[in-house]
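Weekend entry, working from home. Most of the wet-lab plans are on hold until the incubator is repaired, so I used the time to fold the two sequences that have been sitting in the queue since the last round of cloning. Logging both here for the record. First:
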Amino acid sequence: AVVSTQSTGARWTRRVDLFAVDLIMIPIHLGMHWCLAVIDNRAKSITYYDSLLGDNHQCTNALRDYIASEHLAKKKSPLDIQNWKLVIEKEIPEQLNGCDCGVFTCKYAEYLSQDKAFDFDQGDMPYFRRRMIWEMVNKTLL
């Protein structure tokens, strides 16, 4: 189920202009699984990344409706949402077990934030886990 993005989002973005940034990354928790949704203001798209290659049109539709209402509330004008693309990305590194969804979600976000192509796979997850721990312990990103 999708949490009411209108009321929750309004609290989170009270002092933030979502339309002044290129990418808005939203981790999505589905109870036992993590995915990533990305609102790309440059490309006018909302893309959903699921390492198990699932579909979640409910999420992309809810985010589309949310950014339209956020634009109306903050900019006092309707957002032309008709040209926005809603994408369930399937050409992504795929999770092959039941425990690495969080690491995949973090890596999708990291690579997208740097405009890098995904060049990792399931075999890289042990290294990424160790690297994430090192970065947290040392309070620095590699």
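Second, folded right after the first finished:
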Amino acid sequence: WDRMGVEVTRVVDTTDVSLKVVAESSRIQLDWEQIKHFHQFASAAYGYWWYIIQSPLGHCCSLGAYLNCCPALCCCRQKQEMMVEGDGFFHPNLAAIRCQLDVKEEDILMFDNRNRIEEVPFFLVADRSTKSLVVSIRGTLSLHDMLTDLRGEPGKMADESVKGVNVDWHGHQGMVNAARYVYRRLHGMETGRDGGKDGRCSRRDLLGLALATPDYAGYSIVVTGHSLGAGTAAILAFLLRARYRGTTVTCYAYSPPGGLISREAAVESEKFTVSVVVGDDVIPRTSLANIATLSRDIKHVTSQCQLPKFKILGYGCMAACCSTSNTPISGELDRLFPGSGVSSPGDSSTDGSHRELLIEEASSILPTNPDTLSSFPSMYLPGRILHVEDIHSANSFTVSEVHRTAFSEILVSPRMLSDHLPNHLDKVFQPNFAKL
């Protein structure tokens, strides 16, 4: 059952209404071609900077044809229907989006590249091949984004005024605020930016108008993003589903952060969200509870080990650069320094006094203050989760569906950061390179 992504729970009290299971028929279907297709939109949200560093010479040449080189001339000026803000004089990020997605200029309905804390860049584009309006949100690329990531305490997704979103559903506070910001910008609402002096053009309900346009009649809504953008997109999907009940709203989240939404919200999101996690990626495993657990384990191992701490850190840095496997801290120390006397927190001892010492030490390591990281409620990845694993011998990937509890531990490995980068996902989504 575990391999099928099914969590088996023994029900003692049948009156417990908190145990809910989403029927298979109501869960979103896993279409690998659709998942690959919308990853292009998530990647394009990073703009020209990330696009150019992948292939500096070739992409610089291809980007030139889409630049708004002479905006003062009527023939080169962007059309009034397209709202572009915060993209400089030549609109280089917009040019990168058009170059990567190969969409018509009139199908890009909105692009806001302004970036502040809890205010993330995004664009709205009509994808005629899938008959959907795509909202793509950029991932972490600035100090403002990092500060948004760091505000990880749970916060309510919506209040009683938003029908369709349970007031007991919680999400990552920084990304909840970012999702609300994108929601307001899409519908021309007040955002509070620049003291509430947004331009008249930005006050238009662009998403509502697009759905009412005959050219986009019957279109669905797709929300997507990578990293910070994925977390924001997953929460935004809840808000859009509550507003557009007659329209299909789907979310594709690539490498979303781990401590994102509460358990009840995670179960509900299986109806419309697909998350993709690659290898040992640390971000989907980063939650307040996991950080507290890793901190406790490190403290336990270093306090038990008799070696100087500079040796532990030195060999650890060498292992991170040279090793390819993810090994527990205690196991790595036993391998490097046999007989160093390191035991895991759960190990038993034949020495009674030593056992008492461990119990006393464990009680001092485990958090007792209610304000500590581990005191927060558990938060999970959204939707149905696909885990992509690298097969080194075959130079390919395998994809399998896993349960959200599979990412309840941070893996320390050399690939924990590289597996998160957008260009690594580009490799995963190459034709015939991964199989579901």
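Plan for Monday: verify the second prediction. The chain has 14 helices and twelve strands.
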